[in-house]
Task: structure prediction
Amino acid sequence: MSRPDGIRHLLGIEGMKAQEIEALLDQGDSYLERYRAGRKIKKVLKNRTQINLFFEESTRTSTSFELAGKRLGANVINMVTSSSSIKKGETLIDTAMTLNAMRPSVLVIRHASSGAAALLSQKVNCAVINAGDGRHEHPTQALLDALTIRRRKGRIAGLTVAICGDILHSRVARSNIHLLNTLGARVRVVAPPTLLPVAVERLGVDVYTDMRSGLEDVDIVMMLRLQTERMRGAFVPSPREYFHFYGLDAEKLAAAKPDALIMHPGPMNRGVEIDTEVADDIDRSAIREQVETGVAVRMACLDSVCSHLQAEEDE
Ligand code: CP
Result:
């Protein structure tokens, strides 16, 4: 399997070229096929150290980055931030500089502050991958979503994608909007006015505040969780009322194309933004597939930044 030109860091989708995104999707697809077929995977990260630094909770992203690194032969260290010297007052930058002194090849970071990954990338010599920074971006989520769509629908260009729910606080929404626009999809956002960022249409989306209109004839329905951990104050009257107007159920889904794909980055809150019946629909829900694709896409991202490092080291 050939290794495309790597990227220095993966901090966000905004600003990435279509070819760079497609190269990561192709590489992720190739890893997914090889793993499923039980074929040998080249240990392209042998003798490399990957440190996962998660300052926010995670199940899918942290586990899949660990698996991805191990499948590629890396030494993977998961730093437990709750028992680290951060608890004694050490700053993010000092923590990163300390880890940098141990000469890792890659730092994978999730942090509650927008811009944390970019800041770190200016202070360290190794590659930095953003595993989610505040409300800003979650680039590997958008890449795995795109690969899931491409595998199911055969393309991304020309599809209509509705991203529904808490757009205001969602880094997943922002990364997906940038990626889908770059690859030629039409993007709608569907949310109550309280959960829409000011001037969101400037991101190149059509805005809907009614679910049935927003879902009309769409190819993809991407649901988002209410990010209560980022909310200061009440943005919805109650979870029950939110579900009534914005929760995805069979009745609202009927407005979408008959073969519309249901997606959710997880974790799901069943009965709040999505009904169990549609979440578990084996024909239309791609939610479990998103998780599997996530490991392969993260292998592609780790491979890419390490191949860039290798090129630098060889100079
Ligand atoms: N989608 C996602 O980022 O899930 P985790 O918070 O479990 O990593």
Notes: Residues 76 and 194 are 41 Å apart (CA to CA).
